[in-house]
Write a structure and sequence with these properties.
Layout lengths: L1 H37 L7 E5 L5 E7 L4 E6 L4 E5 L5 E6 L6 E8 L4 E7 L14 E2 L1 E6 L5 E6 H5 L5 E8 L5 E5 L4 E5 L5 E6 L12 E7 L2 E6 L5 E5 L7 E2 L1 E2 L8 E6 L5 E5 L9 E6 L6 E9 L5 E6 L5 E5 L2 H5 L6 E6 L1
Parallel strand pairs: 8-11, 19-23
Antiparallel strand pairs: 1-26, 2-3, 3-4, 4-5, 6-7, 7-9, 9-10, 11-12, 12-13, 13-14, 15-16, 16-17, 17-18, 20-21, 21-22, 22-23, 24-25, 25-26
Length: 343
Amino acid sequence: MRKGLVMNRQNRTVRRALVALAAATLLGTAGTLPAAAAAHGPVPAVIAGHAPSLVPETAVWDAAHHRFLVGSLRHGTVSAVAPDGSVRTLIDDPDTLIEIAGLRIDPVHRRVLVTNLDNGIGERTGPATLGRVAGIAAYDLDTGRRLFYTDLAAVAGDGGGHLANDIAVAPDGTAYVTDSFAPYVYRVAPDGTGSVLLRDDRLAAPAGSYGLNGIAYQDGRLLLGKWNDGTLWRLPLRDPAALRRVEIADGGALLHLDGILARSNGTLAGVTNLFYGAGRDAEVELSSDDHWRTARLTAVHPSADPTPTAVTNGPAGGLYQLSGGLTEADAGHPTDTFTLRRV
């Protein structure tokens, strides 16, 4: 018995030593965590990017890699933008992509989703594809390797004009895509299978203009923005036929509504732009108390940069606006600079 007691005391002593060592190790690790986090460095309020004629139309914050991703209208590529403004190409798929407008990260499947289109700005534009391309592609977030490509114009199957614009991603990885040249909203399953979620003539735009543009997923519904008239639409996923226009008191302020973003606090952020002589360059914020049957405009922040086209989450809950030189590119003079500015 006495020998057993001695052994138990020794065991308890060893266990205490191990616990103490583990605690010391954890404390040491905890002490190094701020330094490790600080190794990334803070993200400045204004990021001035520079890359030859990149013309980014959309941007997202990639928290996993502490970087922004931007899609190029000019080159049809996706680039990683570091906080210091340096740019590195992540995705270059010339056999597939002409121009990129929409870009989203699907965190469940760790991939990047982009829309493919031909708006006449890209280096790969051509008579056979101009105004007739609507596609979505998925790429590995770490390597940029293509995972699938879906031809949404073929899914529509009407032989008309098409332009895939923006993307929203549901929690399960299902993607939804707007078409600016036809009144379609597409659904794309996580495996890349595409289908028409909705076709509704109320979402059409006059010939030569852009209709559906920004799209956001929020609590089982989609919010759709129309660029040409600044209207906002509510699309319940369980009943797409119940599409309804969102009543907004000051709806005129949303003329040329471009990219939109559903925020974690239930509000909606977006940008409007001065393009073709109408609209204004601004970041706008909306909220709703009745599940987006109606909404109110809660803020309008005039843009310090011309022709903003997208708004994205940033680090620490920040919100950044992208200005990529769309007006200059549309006039045939693409610039080498772009700006991501915290709103």
